[in-house]
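Schema walkthrough. Field components (list of strings):
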Amino acid sequence: NAGVTQTPKFQVLKTGQSMTLQCAQDMNHEYMSWYRQDPGMGLRLIHYSVGAGITDQGEVPNGYNVSRSTTEDFPLRLLSAAPSQTSVYFCASSLATGTSYGYTFGSGTRLTVV
Amino acid sequence: ILNVEQSPQSLHVQEGDSTNFTCSFPSSNFYALHWYRWETAKSPEALFVMTLNGDEKKKGRISATLNTKEGYSYLYIKGSQPEDSATYLCAFILTGTYKYIFGTGTRLKVLA
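Field assembly_structure (string):
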């Protein structure tokens, strides 16, 4: 049982490049989400999914796309990287939303856009 | 835009001291509140999930209370130890949505 696996752990991109941050969980969790962590800003929700085929926007969705074709995987795509997207990205999953279950977080991806 | 506020931002206490901090959230349309502990270089770990007004949860020396009518939750640590040093986050969930909105956290440093 690996929990929530994020890859890569570190990435440097040039402005304008695109890339995909991978997130996979093996706990059969329905709910998955992506957060970014910036100094003084806490964790801000980018996108989330309540099940395969269902995604929705969070607080800061601009510049990011997601899809959820399987229960296990929830990749985050940066369409055209900008320096403002330099951040630490966390993927998290939960068996269900809200009442009984907390999140399980991945170990994070540190992204630098130059 | 939902505002979830935590205070204080940071806190230094001596080993053995008891301490508490606050999470404030919108009191209307409350669904659930979570507390997380986040150690440096690790990922956040869930401490408590709280749903009912008046809820009290406890795990060892850490406990939490919830007041949904006035929109706040307190986290208490009794007899702080250096290993309690971490950032403590709360996350608010609005009814009718699936969005967890996090506060900016309280950074606790326990001095030996």
